[in-house]
Amino acid sequence: MILCVLKLNFTHTALNARHLHYVNIITSTSVCKNCLHFEFSGSSPEDDASKVPASFTFMVPKKEISMVPDMGKWKRSQAYADYIGFILTLNEGVKGKKLTCEYKVSETVEKILGLLGTLDRWINETPPVDQPSRFGNKAYRTWYAKLDQEAEALVSAVLPADQQAAAAEIAVYLKEAVGNPTRIDYGTGHEAAFAAFLCCLCKVGALRVDDQLAIIFKIFNRYLSVMRKLQKTYRMEPAGSQGVWGLDDFQFLPFIWGSSQFIDHPTLEPRHFIDEKVVNEHHQDYMFLECIKFINEMKTGPFAEHSNQLWNISAVPTWSKVNQGLIRMYKAECLEKFPVIQHFKFGSLLSIQPVKP
């Protein structure tokens, strides 16, 4: 793999060594070509070769990465190959498309939206409690307890009749996707669990190849809105936040997929996303701008100070380079970091077993 680091003329701020680390990642143009494909079930029963058989033995996922040396098992695992392939396949699917474009919304997609609507309704039914601490409202634990109790039933309602046995396994990823009830925090590891939840639904054939746009534009976008509501309502702490050095306190994937939406856009360039007028005019069409809008609502002060890495990324010349660099950054800063992956759970659908040759 050849790493091509471009020397950019950053006019925003002087770059120190840590700035350069991120700039080198974000301006690299190389992406692993062996990780670009995920096998969705087809649009017809005849195309379902990749779907797990009804006789498949499911298992409740568990942690497998307990020490830093275990990270090698993760990077060689079928789970890693399936997960990154899923992320990149969806990344290709949304390239150049607006959130408001036309696409199919299947019955299963509608059911998942209903599931997320239930989680949203439970927030309304579980108001924050009065407490001395400003952050980490303990009412979140009451909200989470409802999900913990109902998760398997919620997932079962989404699955096809011949895959009901998968409910217990897939429900674990749903419960992991909404934050931690002990610490009352949320971060990219929880976001990854939701992507794993969607990946598992694809592997059992609940979501299919023609659901790809709806997976991001409908399901993941609705998930983001529920997570933002959780974060604001219960004042959740960022899990493992790198502060000003991180891309965002809570999310990463919408920046990857959102930058892909912008590829080959005739007028909007990376430098435009720090313009509040552009954000307000176009956020309903682009996931990336919706993320910027949320940051602007939650943080005060100059953008360059509270979101320095995004500020630096705005100087990258093309959305294609931003997208490729964010993928590399996601691997380096999330998928290859022990503090994140130690919490990931492995089952039969996302297996710790090595990729078969």
From TrEMBL:
UniProt KW Metal-binding keyword: yes
GO CC, any one term: nucleus
Keywords attached to this entry: Acetylation, ATP-binding, Cytoplasm, Isomerase, Magnesium, Metal-binding, Nucleotide-binding, Nucleus, Rotamase
EC id: 5.2.1.8
Protein localization: Cytoplasm; Nucleus
GO molecular function, one term: peptidyl-prolyl cis-trans isomerase activity
InterPro entries in the cross-refs: Phstyr_phstse_ac (IPR004327), PTPA_C_lid (IPR043170), PTPA_sf (IPR037218)
Catalytic activity: [protein]-peptidylproline (omega=180) = [protein]-peptidylproline (omega=0)
Record's keyword annotation contains Endoplasmic reticulum: no
GO term, biological process aspect, one: mitotic spindle organization
Entry similarity comment: Belongs to the PTPA-type PPIase family.
Matches recorded under PANTHER family: SERINE/THREONINE-PROTEIN PHOSPHATASE 2A REGULATORY SUBUNIT B, SERINE_THREONINE-PROTEIN PHOSPHATASE 2A ACTIVATOR
Protein's job: PPIases accelerate the folding of proteins. It catalyzes the cis-trans isomerization of proline imidic peptide bonds in oligopeptides. Acts as a regulatory subunit for serine/threonine-protein phosphatase 2A (PP2A). Modulates PP2A activity or substrate specificity, probably by inducing a conformational change in the catalytic subunit, a proposed direct target of the PPIase. Can reactivate inactive phosphatase PP2A-phosphatase methylesterase complexes (PP2A(i)) in presence of ATP and Mg(2+).
Name of the protein: Serine/threonine-protein phosphatase 2A activator
The gene coding this protein: PTPA
